[in-house]
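Practice problem: predict the structure.
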Amino acid sequence: MTSFSNNIRSNIGYMNNCSPENVDHDDKFFIQQGRKVFKEVLPMVSTLITSEMAKMGLGADDIKRLYLHQANINMNNFIGKKVLGREPSSSEAPIILDEYANTSSAGCIIALHKNKQDLSTGDKSVLCSFGAGYSACCLLLEYV
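Answer:
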């Protein structure tokens, strides 16, 4: 899923004049309006996950693990709560931020790799990553 937003952007481009008096203007740097991003991306991602679960006939109780994009713990907690309908436990929505920090879209894969040992055949999980733009991807996984 992708939705356009100006809340994360950079105004510099190949057409800019790179003369010394123009190149460092404040409007040419990376700009992120974090509160707006939080308010717009998280409902989009939560809806994406729950709609994909509904397509497969899955409810919150069917999901053993949420492997989420590891950009911000508040984002992960928000999404986990929206998807599960309650605060997720640390085993249900593992966080790797304390060890790896923000690894961008790779964070959900790292979380999966480090937190899959206790899964049994038939256990279902969500793998979800999202980023600038706004773009989001969600996969439903079943352990075999």
